[in-house]
């Protein structure tokens, strides 16, 4: 059975953030609220945790996981970004967007798309997630909390606990958040391509 932390969505309690970061660092899979909807997150370098996350979601290695980064400079470590791409990223971050970019060698092979060598990256505007990444000192692997066979993300921490609490190590209750997923934009081509329309306004990146 997972632990359940009530964390303030605007002013996260440092003690609880530290405990949550310790759970993630120890290999935990955690449900957290974001600026789009609830997501599952785990440690970047923990292969077993990533595999658990994929099993809970019912997805294989061809499904992009997103790397939650603290800022644009961190995105530049994990993705190849040219000047055109940087301008688009700067216009849309932080915010509810996921960008598909070419992965660098800093990204573990198991996290990038097996045939395209791409990775989904985003900079969320969420105090809880920002505090977690600051405490860990690195990005988080994430995936929208949609259960297998369903089309809508889970948004209620109590429902998350009732339905999949036994499969998680921690549920962070930061209150209800949006039911909309991130807007996904592929930046690997000559022009931006809208992959999924979500909470982010595609006009921000000229779409």
Automatic annotation (TrEMBL):
Residues 14-200 form the YrdC-like domain. Pfam families: Sua5_yciO_yrdC (PF01300). InterPro entries: DHBP_synth_RibB-like_a/b_dom, Sua5-like_dom, SUA5_domain. PROSITE patterns: YRDC. GO terms for molecular function: double-stranded RNA binding. NCBIfam families: L-threonylcarbamoyladenylate synthase. This is Threonylcarbamoyl-AMP synthase. It comes from Pseudoduganella umbonata.
């Amino acid at each position: 059975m997972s632990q359940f932390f009530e964390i303030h969505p605007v002013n996260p309690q440092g003690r609880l953030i530290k405990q949550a970061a310790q759970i993630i660092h120890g290999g935990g899979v955690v449900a957290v609220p974001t600026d789009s909807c609830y997501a599952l997150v785990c440690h970047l370098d923990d292969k077993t945790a990533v595999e658990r996350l994929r099993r809970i979601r019912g997805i294989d290695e061809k499904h992009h996981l997103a790397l939650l980064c603290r800022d644009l400079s961190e995105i530049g470590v994990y993705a190849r970004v040219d000047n055109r791409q940087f301008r688009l990223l700067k216009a849309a971050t932080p915010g509810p967007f996921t960008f598909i970019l070419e992965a660098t060698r800093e990204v573990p092979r198991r996290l990038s798309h097996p045939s395209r060598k791409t990775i989904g990256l985003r900079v969320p505007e969420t105090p809880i997630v920002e505090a977690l990444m600051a405490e860990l000192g690195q990005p988080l692997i994430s995936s929208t909390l949609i259960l297998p066979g369903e089309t809508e993300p889970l948004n209620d921490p109590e429902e998350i606990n009732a339905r999949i609490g036994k499969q998680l190590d921690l549920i962070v209750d930061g209150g209800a958040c949006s039911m909309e997923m991130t807007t996904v934009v592929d930046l690997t081509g000559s022009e931006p391509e809208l992959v999924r329309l979500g909470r982010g306004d595609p006009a921000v990146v000229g779409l």
